[in-house]
Amino acid sequence: MQNIEDINRVIKENLAVMLYFSAPTCNVCHALKPKLLEAIENNFQEFEVVSIDTSIEQEIAANFSVFAIPTVLVFLDGREFLRKSRHMSVDEVIREIKRPYEVMTS
To answer: Could you tell me which InterPro entries the record lists for this protein (predicted)?
Structure first.
């Protein structure tokens, strides 16, 4: 079980954080997640990934204004940088994060 305070602390304490919102009934979520996590791992060293099950954690989803799944929120240096919902490709997410991430870590 997670709470909003824990997630906000992770966002504050880490350079790069991805929140992955999904639910057990979402087939797209399950197909996308392993590919996305692998791409994050291969491209970015300092990335914390937090998975949030919206079927259990409705309050957290609402707090981050997430109303569709899958939704990916990327925080860089404590600020929301990227928000993708429903239709997204792994390449697209990686491409949008890559340059600002490299600037921050160089």
So the answer is: Thioredoxin-like_sf (IPR036249), Thioredoxin_domain (IPR013766)
SS (H, E, C) 9-78: HHHHHCCEEEEEEECCCCHHHHHHHHHHHHHHHHHCCCCEEEEEECCCCHHHHHHCCCCCCCEEEEEECC
The two tokens of residue 16 are 């790069």
Q: What is the CA radius of gyration of the chain?
A: 13
Q: Domains plus CATH for the chain?
A: 4-105 (3.40.30.10)
Q: Which residues pair with 21 in a beta bridge?
A: 52, 71
CA distance 40 to 9: 21
Contact 2, 57 (CB under 8 A): yes
Other Cβ atoms closer than 10 A to 12 = 11
C-alpha atoms less than 13 angstroms from C-alpha of 64 in its C-beta half-sphere: 30
**Tens-place pLDDT, residues 15-53:** 999 999 999 999 999 999 999 999 999 999 889 999 999
